[in-house]
Amino acid sequence: MPHTPLTPGQHVLLVLAHPRGDSLTARLADHIRDRLAGDSLTVDVLDLHAEGFDPRMTQADEPNWGERDKVYSAEVRSHMERVDAADLIVVVFPVWWFGLPAILKGWIDRVWNYGFAYGRREPRLRGKRMLWLGLVSYQREEFAALGWDEVLVRTLRVGISEFCGIAEASVHFVYDSLNVGEDASASADTALAGLHR
């Protein structure tokens, strides 16, 4: 499949999943927002904690396999609209317990729902691009030796993005997150540079 570089005027949904605004994860999301805006892209920052997103599945948002056009809750529909509007989705999150933080997993569960993100012959999200940027406390070599890099890449790129029709999806890790300091921005810049090629 041909690679589609980003172009000025495209719209980005930047999703942040960390409870502290002074965390490295939040600072990295700010850096990414500034870089993308500097490339003449519009950026919608979705700070899941700051916006009070409720990750708990409710009956209103539980998939109904017999009703593909089910009308979900107003909260979920508003998030679906933000996903729909994006050309690129960038998700910035800490890797906790070798997976997604609960609030981010709940966002996927509730918003990337049947009939919207999957379950149609022509996926609604096809043509979008996606970057998962996870902060990992392990060194790169140790994380790879344990096999967690492969598990997470498969889950995020294949199990979520590609399953929902997003073929151009990548996963990038910022390693040694407890000590990386300013090098985290350089690592994020490397991931962003890949979006322009």
UniProtKB/TrEMBL annotation:
Family classification: Belongs to the NAD(P)H dehydrogenase (quinone) family.
GO MF annotations, alphabetized: oxidoreductase activity
Residues covered by the Flavodoxin-like fold domain: 11-193
NCBIfam families xref list: PRK09739.1 (NF007280)
Organism: Nocardia suismassiliense
Protein name per UniProt: NAD(P)H oxidoreductase
Signal sequence, renumbered to the chain: none
Keywords for the protein's UniProt record, in alphabetical order: Oxidoreductase
